[in-house]
Write a structure and sequence with these properties.
Two copies of one chain form a homodimer. Helix content of chain A is 74%, strand content 8%. In chain A, strands 1-3-2 form a three-stranded antiparallel beta sheet. Chain A has six helices and three strands. By secondary structure, chain A is mainly alpha-helical. Chain A is globular and about 60 Å long. In chain A, helix 3 packs across helix 4. The first copy, chain A, folds into two domains: 2-114, Winged helix-like DNA-binding domain superfamily/Winged helix DNA-binding domain (Arc Repressor Mutant, subunit A, Orthogonal Bundle), CATH 1.10.10; 117-152. The A-B interface holds A 1-7, 9-14, 16-18, 20, 107-108, 110-116, 118, 120, 122-127, 129-131, 133-134, 136-138, 140-141 and B 1-7, 9-14, 16-18, 20, 107-108, 110-116, 118, 120, 122-127, 129-131, 133-134, 136-138, 140-141. Chain A binds a DNA duplex through residues 31, 33, 48-50, 58-65, 81, 84-88.
DNA sequence: TATTGTTATACTCTATAACTATA
DNA sequence: TATAGTTATAGAGTATAACAATA
């Protein structure tokens, strides 16, 4: 069936993208987690470690470790929180900011390369299809979660 | 730009699918690795542990561990290799086979649910687009690998 | 009393190296 | 000499629990 073939392809593509990303990142001494952390700070501004833990769904303790690594690499730094003396704020260094900007650019270039030769309409059509797949999948996951609640 | 939005969506979908799969598997005491192992045996027939290590791109030592876990769960068993007394063959138990069949069915059902209401032509059109994205991505990865060869 | 971050500790996943039995 | 699998060991990644400083 074609429907299953499409599904398998999406899984395949997802595996390819992920493997490639991990290879690229490890070449510059990063991994998915540390990059996610920097990406969050880059887009949301200075964050407390607790906020980062919430965003990334990992423990605060683990954020401490990740931040330590990024400080070692001169990509972020800790600053006292302006209003809460218990907390610190994580900010990107210049090097960190410029790395995030480079990544964003690479990202755009890759997106363009992968859809090269498609008309804008084609891009829009596929985008809208994928959107419905995401929405439906989210609905199914919610349903399953509700089911588990009821059973438990 | 729309092209980047599509790319981001594909990444998002991939993360959703993966997280969901891991949750489902952990509910039945499996993970991505052990499932991959069983899937390989289910589709390729009885395999030596070395063959499994090749297929999964992990060490033979790690295959030993994964097989031990699956034996503990009564999902596979070891059998002497018919022609090579150094080796063993991994086979699925009845329970293991039936689990793989259930998974294949769930997989088909999910693919259908996610594309519900799409015409066959629409499915085919999106499939063909994703195919070109995969092909192009593979080409880019190869190019980058060749580049690294030359530099090294 | 609750929250932020850290010290101490442990668990999971996976790898490398040395070894046994067999090819 | 090379290969299949295992014993022993170690490293990365991540979690839980207890604690200090502050809210």
């Amino acid at each position: 069936m074609h429907r299953e073939q499409l599904f398998d392809q999406l899984l395949h593509l997802s595996a390819l993208l992920q493997a490639d990303q991990e290879r690229e990142l490890s070449a510059i001494g990063l991994n998915t987690r540390t990059t996610h952390l920097m990406w969050a700070v880059h887009h949301r501004g200075p964050l407390m470690q607790r906020e980062i833990a919430d965003e990334m769904q990992v423990t605060q303790r683990h954020v401490t470790t990740l931040v330590d690594e990024l400080i070692e690499a001169h990509l972020v730094y800790r600053e006292p929180h302006p209003h809460d003396r218990r907390a610190v704020q994580i900010r990107l260094t210049e090097k960190g900011t410029s790395l995030m900007e480079t990544m964003a650019l690479d990202h755009t270039r890759l997106a363009d390369a992968l859809t090269q030769g498609w008309s804008d309409d084609e891009v829009a059509a596929v985008t809208s299809r994928i959107e419905t797949v995401i929405a439906r999948f989210a609905a199914l996951v919610d349903e399953a979660a509700a089911e588990r609640e009821r059973t438990a």
